[in-house]
Amino acid sequence: MVRPDNLTANKCTRQILEDLETIRENLLTLSDDVWLSIDHNDSQAFEQGTQFKRSYNEKMAAFNRLADELSALIQQYTAVSLEAEEQTGAGDREHNARIIAELNREVPHSLDEEFTYKRPHGFILEGQAATGITTWRRLYDLLCRQLLRRDPSLFHALVDHPEFVTNQGKRRFARDEAGMNSPSLIGDGVYAEVCMSANAFRDQIRRLLAVFEIPGDQLKLFLRQDRDAARDGRTS
Q1: Closest by Cα among 130, 152, 98 to 221
Q2: Is 92 helix (H, G, I), strand (E, B) or coil?
Q3: Is 236 among the domain residues?
């Protein structure tokens, strides 16, 4: 049995890990905000903005690697996992129904919305639910795993799909993690890039649903702010 002092320590450790992920995602969002705020018709402003973005991206890549290593080190040593509270309905119809019923008490959100500085905690895709999620990157990871199970051949083809190759030639899905800022192994040897802001994840999910021919209304997203408001007895 875990002693109360360990329970408190574990709660604090988990909060620190969540805060680290929040800072990472907010820094990525700030980068997007700055780029969108630049007057691209003003050559001087555009040049200054480009220099800022280049320097910011280099430092962000270094921070992202450090955050990955630090999070993994803390979780390994303390045995506190960010994924410990996750629940998915995969393979268990009754459990899936319970998760859906719980999520449906909250306000559902769609891919048509702005998610700047907002955090997820669950989703329902084609009737399959997941909850207890702490970050957009983890939501994206679980969603990709669901698509892999749905159609393995089509998912494997994403590595060569032009929708998932940037203008700079970087692949959002690959069979080799080299060249990716923050690769996540989805399964079957396919990695996904998960170093993105909330709205960048949103845009990638839109592309994925289009490729898999899944209507947008088949995905519901649930946000932490709504869950916390409901728990506190407040209305959103």
Answers
A1: 130
A2: coil
A3: no
